[in-house]
Write a structure and sequence with these properties.
about 40 residues, single chain, flat
Length: about 40
């Protein structure tokens, strides 16, 4: 599992867990934000 920058969550409370995951792993981005990510395997 990817270790999330918890200090970033404290500094940026606006970020959601999904958004943080998206920054760490493009494949974990939300489908509505990166729909093309599902097509590229």
């Amino acid at each position: 599992m990817i270790q999330l920058p918890f200090n970033l969550m404290r500094d940026q409370p606006n970020y959601t867990l999904e958004e943080l995951l998206a920054q760490c792993d493009p494949n974990a981005a939300l489908p509505d934000e990166m729909d093309w990510g599902q097509d590229i395997d």
